[in-house]
Amino acid sequence: MGEMPWPKVENRTNLPAAMVARDTLSVWGLLKQCIGKELTKITMPVVFNEPLSFLQRLTEYVEYSELLLLANQEADPVRRMELVAAFIISACSSNYERLGKPFNPLLGETYEHHREDLSIHWVSEQVSHHPPISAFYCESSDFVFYGAVNPKLKFWGKSLEVEPRGLVTLDLRKQNDSYTWQNPNCSVQNIVIGKPYVDHNGTVEIRSHGSNLRCVLEFKSEHRVVGTIMDSKKNKLSTLAGKWIEFVNVIRDAKPEKQNALFDSLKRLSISQGDDAVGDGESDISRGKCLWRVKQRPSNAQQFYSLTEFALQLNHIADDMKHVVAPTDSRLRPDIRQLESADIDAASEEKTRLEEKQRNARKERKKQKQEEWIPAWFQPGPHPITGEETWLFNQRYWQRNFANCSDIY
Q: Are 204 and 211 in contact (CB under 8 A)?
C-alpha cells in the first residue's frame, strides 16, 4: 500500500442537528405491510434511517481493534483465541440502542476509513445490488481483516430480524494464524408496543486455521454471551462470559460453572465502572479476568441516533478529505448529509433521486447489453482458506486513480 495522504480531522462531538422523532402510528402503518418480507427489497422512508450507510456501519467492526494488536503479539494460541473472541463480541456493542436503519448502499458506493493512532486502513464497496453484498478490506502492520456481507432483514410483526450472512476472515501477521467466522444474528424487539431494544442471538463458531482451535460463542437474551474454547479433540481449554453491551471476562484457572449456570450468573452481573472487577465476586465470572469493556457513549448520544463516539466520526468530512476519497464515498451521499442536518424532506427527495438514478443506470446497462456490473476495487475469487467463492480486494484503490469511477450521486 502506498503512502496515505489522509488529512487530519478533529473529532466532532455531535451531528449538525438532533434526530427527528419518529411517529409510532405512522411506523406501524408502514411496518404492518412488511410482515414476513425481506426489508432490503422494500423502500423505507428516511425517518426510519440513521445518517450512515451500511458500509459505514460495517466499519464499526474495528472500533476495538486494539484487541487484535494484542492478539498479534500473543504467542499462546489459547490466549490469542480469547482476544479474537473478545474482539468479535466487542463489535456487537455499537448496536446497543441503535434503532435507526442504515441506508442501503448504492451499487458502486465505497467507504474509506483510517485510524492513524493504530495505523489501520479500511476500504469497502457495494459489489452487488441483487443480492445486496458489501465487501470490505482492512489492514494494518498487525493484521488483515476482510469479508463480504449479504444482510437479510425481515419483519415478523413484533420484531425485526437481521441475519448478517457472509464469512469474515482475520489474518494475524506475526503469528501466521488465520480465523474465520460468521457474525451473530441481531434483532430489534418491541417494534410497535413497549420500549424497543436490540439483542443478539444464535451461535458463532470461530475457527483458528493455524492452531486448529475453535471457539463457540452462544448469544442469548438480555445481552448475555458465553464462549468455550476447545482443541481438535473437543477438550475445553478456556471459557469466556459477559454481556456484549458491557464486558467480556475470561475464566482460566477455576473449573467453570456449567454453561446454563454461567448464563444465570450473567443476569445478576454488570460492570463496575472504573474497576476491573465485575459483579459481586462470588461467581467464576466475577473472579475472571476482564478482556474487554465497553467505552461510555457521549452524554448527548440519544439526541444523535445513540451513536458511539466512534460512529459520530464516520460521516464527518473536511474540505481536504473531499479530494482524497473516491467520488463514490458514502460521506458524499447527499441524502445522508441531508438527514444529518435533520432535513427530512430534502433527504427523502435525494434518496428517491438516487434510487431512480440507480434504476436508470441498470436499464441503460441492459440496453447496451452490459447487464453485469463490474466492481472497481473487489473481484470474485476463491477464499484462500476455505476455497468458497467470495469477494477479494484487488489493492488498486490505494493508487487513487478515481478517473473512471461511476457517477452514482
A: no
